[in-house]
Amino acid sequence: MTISSELERLHSEGQDDIYELVSYVKSNGESQVTARENSSRALGIKPYSTQTETAFLTTLNHALDNVLNTNRRCIVQHEVSIAHVFDGNTEYSDLFYSGRFDFVVYEQEYKGTDIPILAIELDGKEHQENDIVMQRDARKNEICRRHGFELIRVENSYARRYNYIKDILIQYFKSVKSY
């Protein structure tokens, strides 16, 4: 399907500024549309980190360092494929192989192997208002539940709240009794 045919398909009767602009350019000069790479969160593709995610990563690492005042060492990875966290999956294969966790906390082993212990998702308004995003979140929650893996969801508005993040980590490590 070409850009022109898509524009015709989407055009409705009446005023349509974009349609008129494209028609003008096509009749009065060259028209060329540069292809863009897909970069949609809904598709599981994010070409860059947002300021909120960067701030959250800083807050999370700082809180993790202060919560783990033992010999336990953990690191945080950003944008981790779901398939890299689990060995296998029987359902939701589309999300399993294309989806990502915003953050995964790994325990560093002495043998050089990092073991994923916890995933954290930053959720904006779209996670409460967009049906497609909510369905994807439910499927991601189910994958984690079936694998016995903790997935914690944090609202974007709490990304910079150190004490809130610290409390989440304290509660998590207390619940697994390895704190």
Written account of the structure:
The protein has 179 residues and is of the alpha+beta class. It has two domains: 35 residues, no CATH class; 135 residues. Strands 1-2-3-4 form a four-stranded mixed β-sheet. Strand 2 and strand 3 form a beta hairpin. It is elongated. The termini are far apart. About 4% of the residues have low confidence.
Radius of gyration: 22 Å
Number of H- or I-type helical stretches: 8
Biggest sheet character: 4 strands, mixed
Helix vs. strand class: alpha+beta
Instruction: Compute the separation of the termini in Å.
Output: 57 Å
Order of helices and strands: HHHEHHEEHHEH
Q: What does the overall shape look like?
A: elongated
- Total count of strands: 4
Could you report the average pLDDT, rounded to the nearest whole number?
78
Quote the beta fraction. 15-25%
- Count of separate structural domains: 2
Spans with pLDDT under 50 lasting ≥5 residues? 42-48
Physical arrangement of strands within the biggest beta sheet: 1-2-3-4
Kindly state the percentage of residues in helix: 40-55%
Concise synopsis of the structure shown:
The chain contains 8 helices and 4 strands.
Keywords:
179 residues, alpha+beta, four-stranded mixed β-sheet, 45% helix, 18% strand, DUF2726
Q: What is the secondary structure topology, with strand pairs?
A:
Blueprint lengths: L2 H8 L6 H12 L22 H17 L6 E8 H4 L7 H6 L1 E9 L5 E10 L2 H4 L1 H16 L4 E5 L6 H14 L4
Parallel strand pairs: 3-4
Antiparallel strand pairs: 1-2, 2-3
Helix pairs in contact: 3-8
InterPro entries: DUF2726 (IPR024402)
Protein name: DUF2726 domain-containing protein
